[in-house]
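$ ./design --mode recover --in tokens.txt
reading tokens...
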């Protein structure tokens, strides 16, 4: 990380995942934020960042991360469902309904794809 002049985002992604696995969520969030500041086109990192925020009951941070994740990967049932869960915790009922409706739409389309195979 230091050798790259703080420009090698993959190092921060790896460190973030390691901290997340060790349940050091605050440290994981810091590493993920550094990585995403350099390269924000990683829906899996946005998703894991959202999960870290959820573990700390930071619903605003989680909702923001899942919003980015679902925007980048629109067919992610898990991202939409977690986003809906965050909105429920925030008592934002309309947005929760919309996110959960999208999660169900994605889930339904997946099942239809498997049936046709």
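writing sequence...
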């Amino acid at each position: 990380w230091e050798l790259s002049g703080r420009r090698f985002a993959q190092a921060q992604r790896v460190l973030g995942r390691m901290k997340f696995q060790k349940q050091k969520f605050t440290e994981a969030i810091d590493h993920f934020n550094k990585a995403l500041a350099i390269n924000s086109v990683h829906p899996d990192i946005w998703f894991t960042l959202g999960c870290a925020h959820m573990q700390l009951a930071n619903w605003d941070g989680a909702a923001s991360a899942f919003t980015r994740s679902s925007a980048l990967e629109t067919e992610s049932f898990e991202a939409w469902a977690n986003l809906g869960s965050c909105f429920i915790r925030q008592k934002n009922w309309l947005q929760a309904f919309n996110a959960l409706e999208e999660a169900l739409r994605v889930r339904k389309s997946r099942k239809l794809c498997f049936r046709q195979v």
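exit 0
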